[in-house]
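Researcher: Let's run the pair from yesterday's discussion. Sequence first, then tokens, for each.
Model: Starting with the first of the pair.
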Amino acid sequence: MSIKQITYHILFWIVVTGSFTISEWGYMDSFKDALVYELLFLPSRLIVVYINWFVLIPRFLYKNKLLQYFLILVLILLIVAIGHRYFMLYWGYPNFFPQWMQGQKIEPLRFAKLIQAVLIIVSPVAFTTGFKLFMDWYRQRRETEVLIQEKTSAELKFLRSQTNPHFLFNTLNSIYGLALEKSEKTPSLILKLSDILSYTLYESNTNEVPLTKELKLIENIIALEKERYEKRVEIEYVVKGDIESVKIPPLILVPFIENAFKHGLKNEVKKGWIKVTINVSKEELFFTTQNSISKKEDENSNGGLGLQNICRRLDLLYGKRKNLEINKTEDAFIVNLTIKLLQDEA
């Protein structure tokens, strides 16, 4: 044990002995006699308490060997009580309370006196057992919470690490198509991609970013895709409310934008459409995307890896504070996300 732990144990026994002394003082005329009487009981209490604390509880009680635990504890109490009776009758009483021995027959194994000694010794045993059970339960709970937090943090980092390459793959794929066509837009798209990568590499490695930065990234993505698809897509982008003071996890909205372009327009030969709305109030952030569905789009398509990852991230980050609805109609794919903002996020 450390010095700090030893100090706590010493203070505990001072409190226990002092409490029993004050209680015993009510039956004796002298506080000194009450203190001496309790100090004579201290060795027996120490023996049983620490055998129970370090041996019986971890080896029997924590292993669900309840019957063995109680039988061994009772046996130890009886042995220590008998030893205490011999100690008091042959040394304690003669040296400190000789008046109590006058005319008394020495009977170390007298049943009533043994039960009295057991009850006096067992009092701190019961208290320390309850205290140890509580402390060990609390410590185990804290360790479990830390493990859960570490697991959640590791999973979030893994999901975020997948988001960046997934986004990069989709964007490079778009530029690659234009490069094959030797489009004059390729250089400008690469420049926009550079700005996007700057954000994902250098500004998204934190737990939260200002919503304004995330929206700037979304605007760059929309601009990039708009140049790629030209007149093939009609885009409606609306932002409402006070966005300046809100913070969100980085790249939490981007996968929904990616999904709208990737799955809404990749096989569409006629003109498609995409609607993005972000509305911020004092208590909530509402985000929605709607996109047209290509007739050639697989009916069983669920949005791919990026959408699955972001759904998991939202569960880990917000839990019940978020409501995510993903619906697919005959001609549209709709995502509605509502996040309840805390005070430090709004």
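Model: Moving on to the second of the pair.
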Amino acid sequence: MKAPLPSLRALARGLARRRGRRPALHPDGLLLSGVLDVLPPGDRPWGVAWLDSGGRYDVTVRWSRAAGLPERLPDGLGLALKVRDAAGPDRPLDLLLTSSGGGPLTRHLPLPRADALGGPYSTLSGYRFPDRVRVVAAFPDEPGRGLPVRPSELAAALTRRPARFRLCAAARGEPWRQFATLSVRTAHPDPAAQPVAFDPYAASLADLPPTDRLRALREAAYAGSRQGRGAAEPQGARPPTHDARALARPLAVARAQGLFNIVGGSWPLVSLRSFESVYGAKTDRWLQRTSGALLASAGYGMLRTEPTPAGLRQARRIGVGTALTFLAIDLVYVPRRVIPATYLMDAAKEIAWLAAWWRVGRLPEGDVGDMGRVGDTTG
């Protein structure tokens, strides 16, 4: 993650300068007012005080075009919410959502859209609920309504008829569960007001912090944007409570080995014939497919590693364990001529992964709770 940050900062700086000192990201937007109704959780409490207590909150909304493309083209759309007093008197909660899909994969991907109500908006990355990490998303109540994305047309359309959303949360492998309704009704009462800043790190709930998966990227882009338009750095920004640089290398190793294991494990599943042309014919093909599927599953777990000390320790256990297992098989059965000598190529790769983990060294101590939680933003 570390290498692309200076390039991203420079790109955002150049965009802001070219746009006449407008922000590089979300340069075109509309400030609106709305109401958020948090629903009673019933017999399934979330474990988050704000969600479990219910209530009605005034919301400042900014609907924006993320890339600032020409208005005739689809663009990624941002839906930023500032929920007043959610964290206490004069302590708002900021939620930044981006046009996305609602599926297990597409909820993590920004998707361009030509219709403001053409699909859901999600945080892309997750929030740490007490029991698990969940993505937060806003689903329009009228997805076929056809709301324009141009700010001037959007304001007129919302004045005639509000836009309503269902706010939901879901972890990997569980269905979406609604926790609130949002009504976006009118343009902001003070159109000449100073731009409203949205910061999901500073404006968050103590028992519902965002994860840190996208924070470094977002901060680099916004820092470059501020430099390009000559804006001052925000006051009172909270730095990460742990050194993200200490986690960058093990996270890179975990995700690289995860991808490697997914590709290697999927090979006999996708094309057993080509696999056998390299590693020899197999008698029990079902066994080869089974071991490939298990390796790919372990790789997927490593690829989705949480960037926390605890998550990386678990990824290292999986990575070192799989590498040692396959290395032992290669070194034991190649000399006995049970498997062909081409498996020594695999042995060299496994040695490389073990060396990579050895070079990582000692991981930082602590877990999610005591290392701090750093959020991400996707507005």
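Researcher: Give me one sentence on the second I can quote.
Model: DSSP finds ten helices and nine strands in the chain.
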